[in-house]
C-alpha cells in the first residue's frame, strides 16, 4: 500500500508541470550561471557572509547588540539552511530515480524494488553532499548552535562559502587542478623533508638545555617556518648539529619554493588562453548590442574599425589563430572559433535576436561565407546577415543560404568608374558624404513621438537656420523616400529626416529638435 | 561624349565590370593584358603589353587628351609600375587605378594616378553605411548607381547665366522648386558645401560648377531657367 502510494506520488511529481517549473526556478537562481537573477542571489549571500564575519570580529573585544547577534546566529543560519536544502533538492531528482527504477523493473516483469531506488537516491544525494563546496555550506549552518562555543568558529566557513560565489576562486582552483599530480609530488616531498628535519632537529636539540626546541611540536613548527623560507627567528637551533640540519632544510626550502612557484606559473601560462576566452565570452554575453564579424581579413578589419569608430561593439570570430591574434591586437573581443560550426555560437552564450545587430560574413571566400550563413540559418531564421561576394557566379548560392544583404566589390568598381567617368565632381561629393573623414556628412534623424508633437510639418523644422540641407524624408508608413519635401509635408513618428551638413551643425540641429520638446 | 577611348590595362573580373559599365560612354575601348593566354582564350580583342613598353603605338593612334586609362592589374606592384610608366609617358592622361588597400592607394597617387579606388576602403564604407545609415545609403546608392528618377548632376555656370556675379547665399533656391544645390566647385578646383562659410561669401562666376540633386525634369527646368548646361570635365578636383 505504502509502496503504491510512494510510486504514485513519484509519478505525480515527475509529470507535474507546476512542480517541475518551481524546481527549475530554484535551480536557475541557485545554480544556472546564465540566469540573470542568480547574481542578485549571490550578492545577497555574500552580503550575509560579510555581516557574519563582521559580527565575529567585533565580538572578540566588544559587546554585540542582541538583535544583531540573533540575526547573525539564527536568521543568517536559517537562510543558509534553506539554501542548503534547496541546493540539495535541485541537485538531482528523487522522483525521477524512483520512476526510472519502477519503469526498469516493470519492463523486466519484476516487482518494483523500492529499496534499490532509495539506495540510489541516497547514493546520489550523498555524492552531492560530500562535494567540498557542499561540505562548506553545511559547516556554515552550524553556528546556529552558537551556544557550543567551538561551533562559533564555523562562522569562518561562511567565508569559505565565498568560493562558491567568486568566479576567480573557481578559475584558480580549476587551473591548479590541472597540476594535481605535480602538486601531490611536491606535497609528498615537502612532507618528507619536514618530517625528517623535524625528527633530526628534535633529536639534535631536544635534550640541549640552551635550545628553545623542547617538544616535537616545536620541532615541526621550526621545520615548517624554515622550509617555507619565512624564518621568524623565534626558535633557532643552537648546537652545531642543529645548525647543520638547518642548512639542509634551508636548501630544501629553496627547492620547494622554486618548484611551487614554477608550478603556479606553468599552470597559469598553459591555461591563460582558456581563462581569457572564458572572460571574453562572459563579457560578450553581457553586451546589449553588437556586430558579429565572421572572418577577419582586410575588408573585415576595415569594417570593424569603422563600426567601432561609430561607437559600436564588434565581436570577431575566426578559426585562424593568426587572424584572431590580429583582431585582438586591433582591440576587439575576438574568439578563435570556427564560424561554420553551431557549437561556436552556443559557446558564445548569446541571444542572437536581442543582442546581435547583424552578422557580417566577411571572409574573402564565397564557400566559407555560404557555409557560415547556412550554419547560422540552421538555428536562427531572423538575424540579419550581410556577406561579401567574391565571385558573381556564386550570388545565387549566397541568396539561397539566407543572406539578407550581399556586397560585391567588383560590381562596386564598375559602378564607381561609370559615375567617375560621367559625373566626377558629383560623384566625389556623394562619395565624400559617405566617407568617415569628411567634415560634411549625411545623417538620418529619426522622428520620435515628442518631435512629431512639436514639429507638425517640414516648414517648422527650421533646418536652414542650422545650415543643414534637408535632402528628403523617408516615410515609414509607405516605405517611400520623399525627396525635397514640400513645406506642408506632415512629420510622423517613425519617419527619418535625411540631412546633409557639417557634423557639428547636424548635432546642434538634432539637439534643437529634442530641446524644444523639453521646453515645450 | 567626354572621352573617346578607354584604355583598360588588365583582363580580369574588375575589367569585366568596368567594360560593362562604361562601354556606352566611349567610342572605343582597348583592353591590354600582360598574359598571352588571355588573348588566346578571350572572345573579345585584347592586346598584349609589356611593363617596359614605351607606348609608341598608343602615342600615335590614340587621342590622349580625350582618353582615360584604367589600371586594374591584380598585382599591386605591377599596377603601380604601370601607372608610373603611363604617367612618365603621358603627362595629361587621366589615369584611374584600383588599389587593394590604403597603403597601395597612396603609392598609386604618388605614381601619378588621377583617381584611385581603394577597394577595401570603398567596400567597407559601403558595408558600414548599409548597417549604420541604411536609409541614406539606399537613397545615395540609387541616386548614384541605379536607374532612379532622382539624379545628381553638375551644372557649369556659363557666360550667359544670370547667376553670374551673384552671391551664392543671396540666391533664393526655393524659386527653383524640385532641386537641391549641394555644393559649388570653383576655380581652385575645391568643391565647397553650399552652407560652408567659404561658399557663403562666394560670388558665382563663369566656370563654377554647381552640384545639384533633383528629378530629371526639374534639373532640365533648372538648366533652362539659369541658362547653363550640364557639364562633364575631368580635372584634378578635391572636396
- Count of helical regions of chain A: 24
What is the β-strand count of chain B?
11
- Residue stretches of chain B low in confidence (pLDDT < 50, at least 5 long) are 232-239
Integer average pLDDT of chain A: 86
What percentage of residues of chain B falls in helices of 4 or more residues?
A: 25-40%
End-to-end CA span of chain B: 25 Å
What is the H/E string of chain B?
EHEHEHEHEHEHHEEEHEHE
Give me the Rg of chain B, rounded.
20 Å
Q: How many runs of DSSP E, i.e. beta strands of chain A?
A: 10
Q: How many helices of chain B?
A: 9
Q: Separation of termini of chain A?
A: 77 Å
- How would you sum up the global shape of chain A? extended
Strand content of chain A: 5-15%
How are the SSEs placed, and which strands pair?
The complex is a heterodimer of chains A (520) and B (239).
Chain A: H1 2-15, H2 17-31, H3 38-61, H4 66-91, H5 94-107, H6 114-129, H7 132-141, H8 149-152, H9 155-160, H10 162-165, H11 167-177, H12 180-205, H13 216-227, H14 240-286, E1 290-294, H15 298-309, E2 314-317, H16 321-329, E3 333-335, H17 342-348, H18 352-355, E4 356-361, H19 366-377, E5 385-388, H20 395-400, E6 405-407, H21 409-422, H22 424-434, E7 440-446, H23 449-454, E8 469-475, E9 480-483, E10 496-502, H24 503-519
Parallel strand pairs in A: 1-2, 1-4, 2-3, 4-5, 5-6
Antiparallel strand pairs in A: 7-10, 8-9, 8-10
Helix pairs in contact in A: 1-5, 2-3, 2-4, 3-4, 4-7, 5-6, 12-13, 12-14, 21-22
Chain B: E1 5-9, H1 13-22, E2 28-33, H2 36-41, E3 46-48, H3 56-61, E4 67-71, H4 76-89, E5 94-99, H5 102-110, E6 115-118, H6 119-132, H7 134-144, E7 150-156, E8 180-185, E9 191-193, H8 197-201, E10 209-215, H9 216-226, E11 229-230
Parallel strand pairs in B: 1-2, 1-4, 2-3, 4-5, 5-6
Antiparallel strand pairs in B: 7-10, 7-11, 8-9, 8-10
Amino acid at each position: 500500500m505504502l509502496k503504491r502510494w510512494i510510486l504514485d506520488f513519484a509519478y505525480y511529481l515527475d509529470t507535474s508541470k507546476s512542480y517541475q517549473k518551481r524546481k527549475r526556478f530554484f535551480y536557475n537562481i541557485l545554480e544556472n550561471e546564465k540566469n540573470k537573477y542568480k547574481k542578485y542571489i549571490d550578492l545577497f549571500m555574500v552580503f550575509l557572509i560579510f555581516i557574519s564575519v563582521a559580527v565575529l570580529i567585533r565580538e572578540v573585544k566588544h559587546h554585540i547588540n542582541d538583535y544583531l547577534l540573533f540575526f547573525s546566529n539564527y536568521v543568517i543560519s536559517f537562510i543558509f539552511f534553506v539554501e542548503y536544502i534547496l541546493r540539495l533538492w535541485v541537485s538531482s531528482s528523487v522522483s525521477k530515480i524512483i520512476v526510472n527504477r519502477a519503469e526498469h523493473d516493470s519492463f523486466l516483469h519484476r516487482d518494483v524494488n523500492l529499496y534499490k531506488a532509495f539506495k540510489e537516491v541516497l547514493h546520489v544525494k550523498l555524492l552531492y553532499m560530500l562535494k567540498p563546496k557542499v561540505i562548506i555550506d553545511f559547516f556554515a549552518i552550524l553556528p546556529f548552535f552558537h551556544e557550543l562555543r567551538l561551533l562559533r568558529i564555523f562562522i569562518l566557513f561562511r567565508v569559505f562559502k565565498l568560493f562558491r560565489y567568486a568566479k576567480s576562486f573557481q578559475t584558480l582552483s580549476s587551473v591548479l587542478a590541472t597540476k594535481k599530480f605535480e602538486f601531490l609530488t611536491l606535497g609528498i616531498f615537502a612532507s618528507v623533508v619536514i618530517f625528517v628535519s623535524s625528527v633530526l632537529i628534535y633529536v639534535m636539540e631536544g635534550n640541549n638545555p640552551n635550545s628553545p626546541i623542547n617538544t616535537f611540536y616545536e620541532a615541526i613548527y621550526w621545520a615548517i617556518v624554515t622550509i617555507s623560507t619565512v624564518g621568524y627567528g623565534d626558535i633557532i637551533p643552537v648546537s652545531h648539529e642543529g645548525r647543520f640540519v638547518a642548512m639542509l632544510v634551508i636548501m630544501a626550502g629553496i627547492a620547494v619554493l622554486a618548484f611551487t612557484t614554477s608550478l603556479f606559473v606553468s599552470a597559469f601560462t598553459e591555461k591563460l588562453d582558456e581563462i581569457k576566452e572564458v572572460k571574453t565570452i562572459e563579457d560578450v554575453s553581457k553586451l546589449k548590442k553588437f556586430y558579429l564579424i565572421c572572418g577577419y581579413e582586410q575588408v573585415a578589419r576595415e569594417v570593424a574599425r569603422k563600426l567601432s569608430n561609430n561607437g559600436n561593439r564588434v565581436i570577431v570570430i575566426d578559426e585562424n589563430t593568426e587572424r584572431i591574434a590580429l583582431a585582438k591586437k586591433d582591440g576587439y573581443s575576438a574568439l578563435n572559433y570556427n564560424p561554420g560550426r553551431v557549437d561556436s555560437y552556443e559557446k558564445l552564450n548569446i541571444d542572437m535576436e536581442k543582442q546581435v545587430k547583424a552578422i557580417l560574413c566577411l571572409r574573402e571566400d564565397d564557400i566559407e561565407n555560404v557555409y557560415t550563413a547556412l550554419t547560422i540559418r540552421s538555428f536562427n531564421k531572423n538575424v540579419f546577415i550581410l556577406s561579401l561576394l567574391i565571385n558573381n557566379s556564386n550570388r545565387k548560392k549566397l541568396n539561397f543560404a539566407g543572406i539578407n544583404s550581399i556586397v560585391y566589390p567588383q560590381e562596386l568598381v564598375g559602378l564607381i568608374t561609370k559615375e567617375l567617368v560621367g559625373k566626377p565632381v558629383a560623384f566625389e561629393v556623394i562619395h565624400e558624404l559617405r566617407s568617415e573623414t569628411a567634415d560634411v556628412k549625411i545623417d538620418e534623424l529619426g522622428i520620435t513621438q515628442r518631435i512629431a508633437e512639436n514639429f507638425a510639418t517640414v516648414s517648422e523644422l527650421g533646418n536652414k537656420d542650422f545650415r543643414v540641407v534637408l535632402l528628403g524624408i523617408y516615410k515609414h508608413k509607405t516605405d517611400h523616400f520623399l525627396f525635397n519635401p514640400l513645406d506642408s509635408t506632415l512629420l510622423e513618428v517613425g519617419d527619418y529626416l535625411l540631412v546633409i551638413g557639417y557634423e557639428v551643425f547636424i548635432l546642434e540641429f538634432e539637439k534643437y529638435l529634442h530641446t524644444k520638446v523639453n521646453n515645450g | 561624349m567626354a572621352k573617346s577611348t578607354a584604355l583598360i590595362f588588365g583582363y580580369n573580373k574588375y575589367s569585366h565590370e568596368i567594360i560593362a559599365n562604361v562601354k556606352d560612354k566611349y567610342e572605343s575601348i582597348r583592353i591590354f593584358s600582360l598574359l598571352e593566354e588571355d588573348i588566346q582564350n578571350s572572345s573579345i580583342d585584347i592586346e598584349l603589353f609589356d611593363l617596359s613598353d614605351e607606348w609608341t603605338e598608343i602615342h600615335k593612334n590614340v587621342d590622349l587628351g580625350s582618353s582615360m586609362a584604367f589600371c586594374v592589374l591584380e598585382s599591386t606592384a605591377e599596377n603601380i609600375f604601370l601607372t608610373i610608366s603611363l604617367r612618365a609617358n603621358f603627362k595629361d592622361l587621366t589615369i584611374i587605378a584600383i588599389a587593394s588597400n590604403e597603403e597601395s592607394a597612396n603609392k598609386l597617387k604618388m605614381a601619378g594616378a588621377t583617381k584611385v579606388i581603394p577597394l577595401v576602403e570603398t567596400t567597407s564604407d559601403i558595408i558600414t553605411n548599409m548597417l549604420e545609415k541604411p536609409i541614406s545609403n539606399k537613397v545615395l546608392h540609387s541616386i548614384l548607381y541605379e536607374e532612379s528618377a532622382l539624379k545628381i548632376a553638375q551644372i557649369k555656370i556659363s557666360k550667359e547665366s544670370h547667376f553670374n556675379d551673384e552671391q551664392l547665399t543671396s540666391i533664393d533656391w526655393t524659386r527653383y522648386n524640385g532641386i537641391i544645390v549641394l555644393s559649388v566647385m570653383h576655380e581652385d578646383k575645391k568643391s565647397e558645401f553650399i552652407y560652408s562659410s567659404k561658399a557663403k561669401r562666394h560670388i558665382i562666376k563663369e566656370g563654377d560648377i554647381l552640384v545639384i540633386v533633383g528629378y530629371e525634369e526639374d534639373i532640365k527646368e533648372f538648366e533652362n531657367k539659369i541658362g547653363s548646361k550640364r557639364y562633364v570635365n575631368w580635372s584634378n578636383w578635391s572636396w
